[in-house]
From TrEMBL:
<dbReference type="GO" id="GO:0006366">
    <property type="term" value="P:transcription by RNA polymerase II"/>
</dbReference>
<comment type="function">
    <text>The TFIID basal transcription factor complex plays a major role in the initiation of RNA polymerase II (Pol II)-dependent transcription. TFIID recognizes and binds promoters via its subunit TBP, a TATA-box-binding protein, and promotes assembly of the pre-initiation complex (PIC). The TFIID complex consists of TBP and TBP-associated factors (TAFs), including TAF1, TAF2, TAF3, TAF4, TAF5, TAF6, TAF7, TAF8, TAF9, TAF10, TAF11, TAF12 and TAF13. TAF13, together with TAF11 and TBP, play key roles during promoter binding by the TFIID and TFIIA transcription factor complexes.</text>
</comment>
<dbReference type="InterPro" id="IPR003195">
    <property type="entry name" value="TFIID_TAF13"/>
</dbReference>
<dbReference type="Pfam" id="PF02269">
    <property type="entry name" value="TFIID-18kDa"/>
</dbReference>
<dbReference type="GO" id="GO:0005634">
    <property type="term" value="C:nucleus"/>
</dbReference>
<comment type="subunit">
    <text>Component of the TFIID basal transcription factor complex, composed of TATA-box-binding protein TBP, and a number of TBP-associated factors (TAFs), including TAF1, TAF2, TAF3, TAF4, TAF5, TAF6, TAF7, TAF8, TAF9, TAF10, TAF11, TAF12 and TAF13. Interacts with TBP, and more strongly with TAF10 and TAF11.</text>
</comment>
<protein>
    <recommendedName>
        <fullName>Transcription initiation factor TFIID subunit 13</fullName>
    </recommendedName>
</protein>
<dbReference type="GO" id="GO:0046982">
    <property type="term" value="F:protein heterodimerization activity"/>
</dbReference>
<keyword id="KW-0805">Transcription regulation</keyword>
<dbReference type="InterPro" id="IPR009072">
    <property type="entry name" value="Histone-fold"/>
</dbReference>
<keyword id="KW-0804">Transcription</keyword>
<comment type="similarity">
    <text>Belongs to the TAF13 family.</text>
</comment>
<keyword id="KW-0539">Nucleus</keyword>
Length: 151
């Protein structure tokens, strides 16, 4: 694989993503892996949507900051950020499709996401922390509004 030619934090992320796909049963076949390597060699990151349109990068700024925080260069290669963003979007898309198959058809609810990650202790703990923090923020906002507006 060509991981030596990309940034260190992206290489770690690719390895983790590959392991997750293997352990979750979503292992890609040989043809997909070869296509992925060809994309890396060509510098093509899946940005072109055809018909002369390109997909807007949604997470570039955040991913650059995260990559720097995990030890990459302050200005990582654009290709590395693009590949990482493609992985993130693929993960979100897969999780959303899986979540839509549970519960109410065609709707994604928090409980569906929690159900999907229940077997991954690290993700489950993080989601639990974020949901708890969200509830605390809601209560704090409500108390602040009541204090200011005297409901």
């Amino acid at each position: 694989m060509l991981l030596g030619s990309i940034s260190p934090s992206l290489a770690i992320c690719c390895r983790r993503f590959s392991r997750e796909r293997v352990f979750s049963g979503g292992m890609a076949d040989e043809e997909d892996e070869a296509g992925f390597e060809e994309e890396l060699e060509d510098g093509y990151g899946g940005v072109d949507m055809g018909h002369g349109r390109t997909r807007k990068r949604l997470f570039s700024k955040e991913l650059r900051c995260m990559m720097y925080g995990f030890g990459d260069d302050q200005n990582p290669y654009t290709e590395s950020v693009d590949i990482l963003e493609d992985l993130v979007i693929e993960f979100i898309t897969e999780m959303t499709h899986k979540a839509m198959s549970f519960g109410r058809q065609g709707r994604v609810q928090v409980e569906d996401i929690v159900f999907l990650i229940r077997k991954d202790p690290r993700k489950f703990a993080r989601v639990k922390d974020l949901l708890t923090m969200n509830e605390e923020l809601k209560r704090a906002r409500k108390a602040f509004d009541e204090a200011n507006y005297g409901s």
